[in-house]
Amino acid sequence: MWQTVALSLAGLNVLRPYELLIGLRYTRAKRRNRFISVISLISVVGITIGVAALIVVLSVMNGFQKELRTRILGVAAHVQIAGFEGALHDWRRVEQEALRNPNVVAAAPYVNQQGLIAHQQSVQGALIRGIVPAEEERVADIGAHMKAGRLEALKPGEFGIVLGRDLAYAVGVTVGDKVVVIAPQGQVTPAGILPRIKQFAVAGIFEVGMYEFDAGLALINLKDAQALYRMDDSVSGVRLKLTDMFLAPEVAQQVAANLTADAIVMDWTRSHANFFRAVQIEKRVMFIILTLIVAVAAFNLVSTLVMAVTEKQADIAILRTLGATPGSIMKIFVIQGAIVGVVGALVGVLLGVVVALNVETVVPAIERLFHVQFLAKDVYYISDLPSDLHWDDVATVGLVSLVLSWLATIYPSYRASRVNPAEALRYE
């Protein structure tokens, strides 16, 4: 070995730099101290588990964000134009002006008012939304979430109503039953101011998986809502669907700038900002926590390399006497530590990607094996662990693990480069 090193140091051409050759040799060599090998293995396993866990958790968080967005936008619109004080009078002109934007593919008027749903002794507060079923289908996906009945059954003048599943359960009704809708806006009578009351027939029940909508939303026909709340031909606003929901902030600004009527334009990223901000914060916190796990595993390399340097002091002294520079000695041990980090990161990335792509299969198998349920259906509205793997997250996690592994090699490598050959060979 030392003859080969001497020749390479003398300037002869070799296939690879001698630092790389020696670093690889130290990595493959059987150490006299088995404890060092055990710590190296622990470092590799720790980095692998940390990287895999980080990729899986980030994918699950992305899946929750995507599922939450899908469920919210199944009822809410990409962009919403609302009139001041709850009324938009010239809404047809507003609708046409909005449709001129090339990114707007559909528009639908709506009426939003508060009300009470009563059946026998049960009374529940709800958001009463008046819609035109045929137009509403173009801006939202409520029809796809119908559990009973049909959205098209909401015909003007027939006073039908479609309830969220939890709302229907709370008042104890099903399709075909009668409920009373109480509008808080009063009407003047000789007996005083009384709320307006109208009987509706339950025409359908929907479930979108969001408690906010399933327990607090009731749909009626637009004409019936205008009659109940005495809005004449006015509506509360117009809902828009876009070609790309991620263009909503930009399109909302464009629509607001081109409107001739006084109205408030709001996109889904603002109206439901708290939901998505909470998920994003959780994702960042989990990234930091799991990165610390990777960091702990990576910095196990420090103790591994420090002991390796102590064991190889005689070899270092011989290399120095053959002409190796302190920088070359540093490179040898940086390579040795980096290989451990690279192996751990690559195996961890591979394991994490495989698990993240098969979460829907792995989690149910674990639940059946241990007879547990991670997300109970009676507690969580998203009862399955969704996964949405982003390759940029995979690249970030892999890069972070490699950087941490490299940082862990700096101190031991520097210590190796400071070894005094005379002192190291004194007792050899």
Describe the structure.
Helices cover 54% and strands 19% of the residues. It is α+β, with helices and mostly antiparallel strands and 428 residues long. A hairpin with a 2-residue loop joins strand 6 (178-189) and strand 7 (192-206). The longest helix has 40 residues, at 34-73. The model is unreliable at 1-16 (pLDDT under 50).
Keywords for this entry:
alpha+beta, six-stranded mixed beta barrel, 17 helices, 54% helix, 2 domains, elongated
Give the beta-strand count: 10
Report the order of strands and helices. Answer: HHHEHEEHEEHEEHEHEHEHHHHHHHH
Sheet-strand content, in percent, reads: 15-25%
Provide the low-confidence segments as ranges: 1-16
Share of helix among residues?
A: 40-55%
Largest sheet: 6 strands, mixed, barrel
pLDDT averaged over residues? 81
Look at the helices and sheets and give the structural class: alpha+beta
C-alpha end-to-end distance: 18 Å
User: In one word, what is the shape?
Assistant: elongated
Quaternary state of this entry equals: single chain
What is the gist of this entry?
By secondary structure, the protein is an alpha+beta fold. Helices cover 54% and strands 19% of the residues.
What order do the helices and strands come in, and which of them pair?
Layout: H1 2-9, H2 18-28, H3 34-73, E1 79-83, H4 91-99, E2 104-119, E3 122-131, H5 133-139, E4 146-149, E5 160-164, H6 165-171, E6 178-189, E7 192-206, H7 211-214, E8 217-221, H8 222-228, E9 237-242, H9 248-258, E10 263-267, H10 268-271, H11 273-298, H12 300-311, H13 313-321, H14 326-357, H15 359-370, H16 391-417, H17 421-425
Parallel strand pairs: 3-8, 5-7
Antiparallel strand pairs: 1-9, 1-10, 2-3, 2-6, 2-9, 4-7, 5-8, 6-7
